Amino acid sequence: MSASAAEVRKRGPIVPSLPALLRFAALGLLVAFLLAPQSFAPVFAPLTQYGAPAIYDQGNLLMLTLAHIATACCAAAASTVVAVGLGILVTRRSGAEFLPLSRTLVNIGQTFPPVAVLAIAVPLVGFGEKPTLIALFAYGLLPIFENTIAGLQSCPPQVLEAASGMGMSARERLVAVELPLAMPLILEGIRLSLVINVGTATIGSTVGAKGLGEVIIAGLLSNNTAFILQGGLATGLMAILLYDTLALIERRICRSAHIQ
Amino acid sequence: MITLEQLTKRYGDSTVVDAVSMVIECNSVTVIVGTSGSGKSTLLRMINRLVEPSSGRVLIEGNDTAKEHAHLLRRRIGYAIQGHGLFPHRTVAENIAIVPRLLGWAAPRIQARTDELLEVFQLDPCTYARKFPHQLSGGQQQRVGVARALAAEPAVLLMDEPFGALDPIIRAKAQDDLLDIQRRFGTTIVLVTHDMDEAFRLGDRVAVMSHGRLLQYDRPAALLARPADPLVSRMVGMADRAMRLLSLTTAAEAAVPDSTRSDRTTDDPVVSASASLREVLSELLWRGAQAATVVDAGGAPLGRLSVADILARGRPNG
Amino acid sequence: MHDEVLALSAQAGGKLSAPAAYLRGFDRLGVVLAACAAAGFICLPFVVFKSNRIVPGDPRGVLEVLPMWAALSCYVVLSCDAAVALRIRGARVRLVAALIGLGVVLLALAVACNALTPQGNKVVRIAPGAGFWVLLIALGLMATDAITRMHLRPRTRVLSLVVFLAVAGLAFCHGWFDNVSIMREYAVNAERFSREAQRHIWLALGSLTAAVIVALPIGIFCHRVPRLRSVILGTLNVIQTVPSIALFGILMVPLGALAAAMPLAADLGISGIGAAPAVVALFLYSLLPIVANTATGLQRVSPAAVEAARGMGMTSWQILISVELILALPVILTGIRIVLVQNIGLVTIAALIGGGGLGVFVFQGIGQTATDLVLLGAIPTVGLAFSAAVLLDALVEVMDRGRR
Q: How many Å apart are CA B178 and CA B188, to the nearest integer?
């Protein structure tokens, strides 16, 4: 009985679970497709008509993917800095006057479709990467800001009381107690924001940003289903893998800091 | 009369209730008492088939409950639980009306019954019928919970730790109310608790359970006088069993009719007929008096109780 | 305990530096809003004059475009608003001030556009400038803040929304804003606009309805069989993670194949391009929030209530309908609210694959670099999503009352 239990425990990490296997397979597929897209030509060929190319040929898929990720990450990094800062500000006593409004704004902001933010940014800064970055930045603020406020406000009052009672200054309390306790929620906000960015960056291609959206748009314009599917699958896989990876990192960070 | 025959419940390898047989008298209060995990709740829940027995039978008035649809059976058995389980989205009146509605009573009859029960439980129908549970205090919620269980005039009322969530003062009041209501409606009550004091206070008969087995099922005084098992004597409390015994008898039952009025000094404390001997003794000790005068609710003297009379009652065969 | 903390901070507040101490008499939010509005009003162009719809325009300040009396009254009203924002904390006063300010700014826009448009000229476009938008946002924020702090009851909120929409509708019908560039675009596209707007609503509501019908049973199933819960939610979460445009694209392939293989499907309007992939994609996106919220809502139902219901002899069907689902309804409705707002936004993207909807104007506008056309698509979309959010939030609150 005990021997078999030990066996099971030993076997646990060696045999990965089905979802993990699927993810590894997806990662392998994505990397293979990006490095050697032409080898997938036979798969996509049946989807093309009138001898159109089966694999996207107007740019390097790998470079497009990297540009796509870079755009999403840059915007998310900027959103993180600003949103966490604002979140801290409105939860301090001196910023309390902004708190009710900022909550409502988060609510209203979520009713703005990402594409509207993008479309409104174009007339301000012209076509290209810039409107995409601005739209991603603005739209990415919401989840991080919301979660930062939620995280900071969910700190148990007894813990804060104890921290003050031990003589911590407001700043020490923020850095040593409040932010670490709010970390899981803040990280979740960043993850949501990044995944939304990957999706919205695709639409960015309609205003001339470099990214995998280009492939889909090219497919739509030339009526080439193969392109649409390539772009769609690559973006979808990328988003899922990114989401999972960030969730994993989140769990690692929280576990190493012993935060639930 | 409810008869449990070799009632057993097993979950996999573990036996939660082990071949329990007992006969529950009509119009009485039977308390099942035991530590947590003793199987007392499971036993209770097998009576209305919230838990289906693994083996054994439950007979109500001689009819096997297994032969009836479980939900139809439950509609004629009242059921009240700890934390009351009131529906938060229904008003007090709607909560009480649930089983009558399920049984298809006519609206005027439901209305009349709801008002009657609210009055019995000292909740003014005009004020409380339309309130929602969250607008009531804990004690009021509990009373509505019991009223709801009694709504369809069940002959049997099952109660699972009904007073567990109440504070001591409200709990004592709720226990008194329950006894009043039992007398008024003549309901057969089966109540589960882990609190031995509650068991002694409420139970005409007490069943003590441990690890799924029924250790002893008897009148409270008998449990104290002749515990069938070392565990029973430990649970009823060896140290203050005499006091427990005293608490089972009221002053009215023990009062000695007073023939020689001249004995009575003005210093004698006056105690009410419903006080337990334990309370009378405590009062005498406190006052440093030797005897007390027992009076009824109207203040008319019923007799006297001396310390010696009380001490005699504190012995097993007293 | 809180009082002590406040008292301590108040002591610390005594040692503030001079400017901070000076600012203490002012509402901080008011300071920020008034500063932004003043900068926008004075430094930024109020309108942009364009000789046709796509050329970059010529910025004009308030004084250049408004008659003297109008400009002066604008200054007076906005100065009063700034004073209210800075010094008065009462929410009602602030709301009234903000609403008056909004009205004045909108009227000023109408007056400016009417004054600048040459008689009978259909080519010239007068677009709202950055200054106008800054004022609109600042006053809008002031009103929003006041409304938030007034904690309006759900019915009042819905009523306010209706009144607001009615006033806006009236103003548009009377043609006050006909010379504003966005309304010029509307005039050109009026027929198409109402068609696409209706289509937009149908796409959003249709996919929502289908999702509710399918997701409710799945949510109940998740609640009943906890082992499958994480598998189902995980799968739906993966779908949710796929970017919308990618999902639209991926779905075009099987739906196109279906239409090609089955003439019946094609007759029903299913094809790789158009509404079908849009509806299917929106439906798939909608599943997760509704399933997750149904399961969570059912899980949160007090076990004592369910136990009592069983004990009283309710059948499991009766318990599900009249106890569990009713009690879970506010949480389920919250899921539906999320989905509806999300769908209204996502339908915009369906325009890319020929699904129609208000996104048509957005993408056409992007293609023609015609900002006004973009706004003609974007503003109603936001308005729809916002109205849906207000309505459903109010509904959730009404349902939630008396439940705790």
A: 12
Residue among C302, C311, C323 whose CB faces B50 most closely: C311
The span from the CA of C280 to the CA of C364, in Å, is 24
Query: Could you state, in chain order, the average pLDDT of each consecutive group of 10 residues for chain B (318 residues)?
Result: 92 91 93 90 92 92 90 90 82 91 92 92 91 89 90 91 86 89 91 90 92 91 86 81 84 76 64 86 87 83 85 76
Q: Which two tokens stand for residue B227?
A: 């515990």
- B88 to C403: CB separation less than 8 angstroms, yes or no: yes
**Helix, coil or strand: residue B53:** coil
Which residue stretches of C60-153 are H helix? 62-65, 68-87, 91-116, 130-150
Mutation target for C interface from B89, B141, B192: give the one with most C CBs within 10 A. B89
Q: How many residues does the structure list for chain B? A: 318
- Which residue bears the tokens 């409380």? B128
pTM for the model stands at 0.80
pLDDT at A1 over 50: no
Would you say the C-alpha torsion A81, A82, A88, A93 has a positive or negative sign? positive
Cβ contacts of B73 on chain C, cutoff 8 Å? 313
- Which residue matches tokens 């008396």? C402
Note whether C144 contacts A: Cβ–Cβ < 8 A: yes
| CA-based nearest distance A208→chain C, Å | 10
Of the partner residues C144, C246, C247, the one whose CB lies closest to the CB of residue A104: C144
- What ipTM describes this predicted complex? 0.77
CB contact under 8 A, B75 and C313: yes
What does the buried/exposed string (b/e) look like for B216-247 if buried means 16 or more CB atoms within 10 Å of the residue's CB?
bbbebeebbeebeeebbbebbeeeebbebbbb
Q: What is the H or E stretch that residue A128 is in? A: none
In this structure, the dihedral spanned by the alpha carbons of residues C234, C237, C241 and C243, taken in order and rounded to 10 degrees, is 130
CB neighbour class for C300 (10 Å; exposed up to 12, middle 13-18, buried from 19):
exposed
Cβ–Cβ under 8 Å, residues C62 and C78: no
Window 34-63 of A: residues touching C by CB (8 A cutoff) are 47
Residue C333 forms contact with B (CB below 8 Å): no
Mean pLDDT along residues A94-114: 80
Average pLDDT rounded to a whole number, residues C264-269: 65
Question: 3-state class of B8 per DSSP?
Answer: strand
Question: What is the pLDDT confidence band of residue C392, given thresholds at 50, 70 and 90?
Answer: very high
- More confidently predicted of A180 and A2: A180
Tokens of A180: 């670490």
pLDDT for the residue numbered B116 = 92
Name residues 77-96 of chain A within 8 A of C (Cβ). Answer: 93-95
Per-residue b or e along A35-60, where b marks 16 or more CB atoms closer than 10 Å to that residue's CB: eebeebeeebeebbeeebebbbeeee
Q: Are strands B301-306 and B291-295 parallel, antiparallel or unpaired?
A: antiparallel
CA–CA distance, C102 with C98 (Å, rounded to integer): 6
**Digit-coded pLDDT (tens) for A16-58:** 677 778 888 888 888 888 887 777 777 777 777 776 777 777 7
CA distance A235 to A228: 11
pLDDT tens digit string along C185-205? 888 888 999 999 999 999 999
Any idea what the Cα angle at residue C344 is, between residues C342 and C349, rounded to 5°?
95
Are C404 and B86 spatial neighbours (Cβ–Cβ below 8 Å)?
no
